[in-house]
Write a structure and sequence with these properties.
Largest sheet: 9 strands, antiparallel
Helix content: under 10%
Distance between the termini: 32 Å
Strand order of the largest sheet: 13-14-16-17-18-23-22-21-20
CATH topology: Neuraminidase
Strand content: 25-35%
Number of domains: 1
Number of strands: 31
Bound molecules: MU-OXO-diiron, calcium ion
Shape: globular
CATH architecture: 6 Propeller
CATH class: Mainly Beta
CATH superfamily: TolB, C-terminal domain
């Protein structure tokens, strides 16, 4: 969600003295990691339930790139077609009913609970049936990150009511939709026994070390075990046993505090007035002054089984509590699970969780509590190109009673404070993380940080080398022995984003090929081709440093050569969020989020069509976030 963390203040944009040196060293160090890319893979992880079927094609972008665009349309390369599959308000296909979307936004809260939520983000494809590699029938599972209440209700915030709060809550969470393909055409199956909406009111269980802890208990839940709902679900992950991981990002923005802010509220951004969702007016638990522990029950990774629509989602506290962007899996050499995670806020950290137990690949139910036991680590990137993972374990290092950490649950609830104490490296907003399917090299987008080097803010280091960093960078690392269990790594910057024509050295990047800024979504296809999605905030899109880069876009990069080509440009005012392909790599699903967003529009119902009427066109109504399907007209491998 870009609204709350838009960095509009202008800091002095002077070039960091070491920046040219950083660009140079990246060019020479690329050779080192190129060698690693050719090394044998250890424990590479196939998609859930699939063998990698198209994995040996050449991981180079084979299409003719599209040019930059400010059109209110999705543009893809010649020979490709993009179609809308599932937009905000479309029926999820639940057997209990399929209410039609109303362009005047007059759908009720109850109807919204049976329809696609707003603001599509992370997405994954699970083949049907479980364990198959089907590329023509499956479950699409996705996040609906947040609501724009100016668009969600016919009259926006006017006459704010319990019904409007409930509709907003029901437009959050996740969708599970069954999809199928015939003759190259995809459709949502309605009705489907798998269809499901998870919302900010869905009952969930708490798992892991913080389950039942005093910090998790509230007036409504004396057990500290049962939480209502998930919200601000940004990116995602999945497990080898076919479950989906949905990640709670800017959860703090939903709370107000009519009383006293605790240290933890302050550390996590809970503020007296909140950020305008106004849920607290009809759902008192969102007043952290009255319910100081309710915030502790959010900011987690939530696991659920899309193959079982009755299954209860579980908040996995062993994975820590922060602004979770996503949770991406890798497998250790000895068969345990690693989950890489970014905390998307300025000067926050990169984490990984390593499970205690091995994955059971023959009995998926045996993995039901695998994510409750393991070790959470935070990353330290040293200026010499090496790095280390620091364990966040109570009693180790600085995480002692003497330093104010009571026990392991306390360490996990206050993950950011624990990482501060551990001396981790403050990053430029870690967003998506992608693990190379053949080499286990890990790539992470650092989307931007205009506060870097600002007054009373951290200065630069080699991993975060620019003051007033408006364009961002992609960092990558190789764990010791290429084993994701490794506690040391080597790193470099894969790409420093920027405008190649900029006369300001701090805004020039080193991308080979098509330029971009503010990388956010990041995903490897089976071949090892890296897909990059951008989230330039609406307040800077097509202005200032971003004047020449058009609308938000998706690109593909060959990580061996660095060659990057622009594959897609989005409609006006959107960002490009999730991406995934079917196992045969012939269909790609991409999420288009917040088309039509303008700097002033949020919470303003006056004119929701200012810059976009995508995807329904001028005859339709409000712009709608949507999942699109992209295929090659000749049925070939997407991206090749
Ligand atoms: Fe929701 Fe960090 O993007
Ligand atoms: Ca966003
Ligand atoms: Ca994101
Ligand atoms: Ca973002």
């Amino acid at each position: 969600m870009s609204h709350s963390y838009r960095d509009d203040q202008t800091l002095n944009a002077s070039a960091n003295p070491s920046f040219a040196e950083v660009l140079e060293s990246r060019m020479s160090r690329r050779g080192l990691l190129k060698g690693a890319a050719a090394a044998a893979a250890v424990g590479s992880l196939p998609l859930a339930g699939c063998a990698a079927s198209a994995s040996r094609r050449d991981p180079a972008p084979g299409f003719a790139p599209v040019s930059i665009s400010t059109a209110d349309a999705v543009r893809v390369p010649q020979g490709y077609t993009a179609k809308v599959l599932y937009a905000w308000g479309d029926s999820v296909g639940h057997p209990s009913g399929s209410p039609a979307f109303r362009q005047d936004a007059a759908n009720t809260a109850a109807e919204q609970a049976l329809q696609a939520g707003m603001h599509h983000d992370g997405i994954h494809y699970f083949p049907l049936p479980y364990g198959s590699t089907s590329s023509n029938t499956g479950l699409l599972v996705m996040n609906h990150e947040y609501t724009d209440d100016g668009l969600l209700h016919s009259d926006g915030f006017a006459d704010w009511s319990a019904e409007k709060v409930r509709k907003s809550q029901n437009a959050h969470g996740c969708s599970v939709v069954e999809v199928r393909e015939k003759g190259g055409q995809w459709e949502v199956v309605r009705p489907s026994p798998f269809a499901r909406r998870i919302t900010a009111q869905t009952p969930m269980r708490v798992g892991g070390p913080a389950a039942g802890h005093a910090l998790m208990k509230t007036a409504a839940d004396a057990t500290g075990m049962n939480v209502l709902g998930t919200f601000n679900n940004c990116a995602h992950g999945y497990t080898p046993w076919g479950t989906y991981l949905t990640c709670e990002e800017n959860w703090d923005t939903y709370f107000i505090n009519s009383g006293t802010l605790t240290d933890d509220h302050l550390r996590n951004g809970v503020s007296p007035k909140g950020r305008g969702y106004r849920w607290n007016e009809f759902d008192e638990r969102f007043d952290a002054g009255k319910h100081p522990n309710e915030p502790n029950r959010h900011g987690w990774v939530v696991e659920f089984d899309p193959y079982n629509p009755q299954s209860q989602p579980v908040k996995r506290t062993a994975l820590g509590r922060f602004s979770h962007e996503g949770a991406w899996p890798a497998k250790t050499a000895d068969g345990r699970l690693v989950i890489y995670m970014g905390d998307d806020r300025v000067f926050e950290y990169i984490y990984k969780f390593v499970s205690r137990d091995r994955i059971n690949s023959s009995d998926r139910n045996a993995n039901a509590s695998l994510l409750d036991h393991g070790t959470l680590y935070v990353a330290k990137f040293n200026d010499d190109g090496r790095g280390e993972w620091i364990p966040l374990v109570h009693g180790q290092g600085a995480l002692t009673v003497a330093n104010g950490f009571a026990d392991q649950a306390d360490v996990l609830v206050r993950t950011r404070a624990a990482a501060d104490a551990a001396g981790a490296t403050k990053m430029d907003r870690p967003e998506w993380i992608a693990v190379h399917p053949h080499t286990n090299e890990v790539y992470c987008t650092l989307t931007n940080n205009s506060q870097r080097g600002g007054k009373d803010r951290a200065g630069t280091d080699r991993a975060n080398p620019r003051v007033n960093n408006v364009f961002g960078q992609i960092i990558r690392w190789r764990e010791t022995g290429n084993d994701p269990a490794g506690l040391r790594f080597e790193w470099d910057l894969f790409a420093v984003a920027g405008d190649p024509q900029s006369t300001d050295a701090a805004q020039r990047g080193n991308i080979i090929g098509d330029a971009y800024g503010s990388p956010d979504g990041l995903w490897f296809d089976d071949s090892g081709l890296l897909w990059i999605q951008t989230d330039v905030s609406t307040s800077t899109l097509n202005k200032g440093a971003y004047e020449r880069l058009g609308n938000n876009m998706m690109l593909a990069a060959d990580v061996r050569s660095g060659l990057t080509k622009r594959f897609l440009t989005g409609p006006a005012g959107c960002e490009i969020t999730g991406v995934v392909m079917t196992p045969d790599s012939r269909t790609m699903f991409v999420n288009i989020q917040h088309p039509g967003e303008t700097s002033s529009e949020r919470n303003d119902p006056k004119n929701p069509k200012v810059v976009s009427s995508w995807p329904d066109g001028a005859a339709g109504g409000r712009p709608r976030s949507a999942t699109i399907v992209i295929r090659r007209d000749d049925g070939g491998l997407v991206g090749s």
